[in-house]
Amino acid sequence: MKATKRNGTIDLLKFLFSIIVILYHFDNAVRYPDELFTKGYIGVEFFFVTSGFLFAKSLAKYSYGKDTLAQDSVGFMKRKFTSLFPYHVFFFLMTFIYCIIRYGWGIRSTFSQLLSSIPDFLLLRMGGISNLPLLGHEWYVSAMLIVMFILTPVVIKYRKIFLQYICPIMVVGCLGFLYHQKHDLDFVSQWTGVCMAGVLRAAAEIAIGCLCYVLCESRLLERLPKAVLLLLEGVLYAVVFLYAVPLFSGLNDYTVLFLVAPAVAVSFTPKACIGFLNNRFVSFLGKLSYPIYLSQIVLRQIIAPINFGLGYAFHAAFYVGCVIIVSLLCILVVDNLLRLCRWFVSRRQPAAN
Predict the structure, then answer these.
(1) 3-class secondary structure for 276-324?
(2) Cα–Cα nearest to 274, from 79, 84, 12, 53
(3) In this structure, what are the phi and psi dihedrals at residue 62, rounded to the nearest 5 degrees?
(4) Environment class of residue 33 by beta-carbon count within 10 Å: exposed (0-12), middle (13-18) or buried (19+)?
(5) pTM for the complete prediction?
(6) How confident is the model at residue 3, as a pLDDT?
(7) What CA–CA distance (Å, rounded) separates 221 from 274?
(8) Other beta carbons less than 10 A from residue 164's beta carbon
(9) CA 257 from chain center: how many Å?
(10) Which of 123, 212, 242, 351 can bridge 247 by disulfide, Cβ–Cβ 3.0-4.6 Å?
């Protein structure tokens, strides 16, 4: 297959970590004695750190202009939001239809619930107002967007100060506060007095991703032999995966988070690139990870109560298979609708003279 400009290692890891996250939530719903990923929520840390890296990398292309700061900031977040929103709409509608059927909502209840779910529809649930529990997993997307919306103008205007000074403060301050609330990272909905805990978790880990970008830009990792980089990368991710199972019970979430960070930095280092992973199939797996993450709760509500009588492995595999199928359907429907919309827009635009 033809190589792409995407990072094949990151795309493959996105897919794998999305599976780990949905299996963690599935395990909590079914409660088999041999459930697997009891700490699978740690996969979200990979997504936040990766998002922080790409956030810093994208904004490095922007030059500060006093008169264009607001326009550049809004434009950046608009592109970020519109890249995520259509897939969210697909699963928001799917969730709402499920609720109507499952709970027997009438017209009045449906309309009332729809109005109450506007913050969820706009991906603002981490702002503190939410009404649709079956979209609870979207806290990650909401927290990421809120944090990036706040930070974008700061990063554009004060890039060096932000990356070298503000980021470390954010990491120490947010993680220190969270650690003293709870010694693991598996809490997001508690109100801290200023914001939801999930927003602080997102802020700290996006800042860590930004620091990973600084490390990569310094080219310090490029000084190491490729074999050393690949070994380091493999060992770090292996520890994270084994912790999710978990087999490293002596570690804690915060320690593992600081193992995820250098692993992500190595994965983004060009010298550590694994060429055969840079193809369209792996790139598509990376794209599939987002719908996989979004689809999990509705399908879990449907599939988890089913008693196949064939044990955990079959039940979990069936669930993952259904999630992947629905995610593929989401991409098929949403991407084609987006193409159709772009075609209509292009048809309505006046021809150039």
Answers:
(1) HHCCHHHHHHHHHHHHHHHHHHHHHHHHCCCCCCCHHHHHHHHHHHHHH
(2) 12
(3) -90, 130
(4) exposed
(5) 0.92
(6) 41
(7) 16
(8) 12
(9) 15
(10) 242
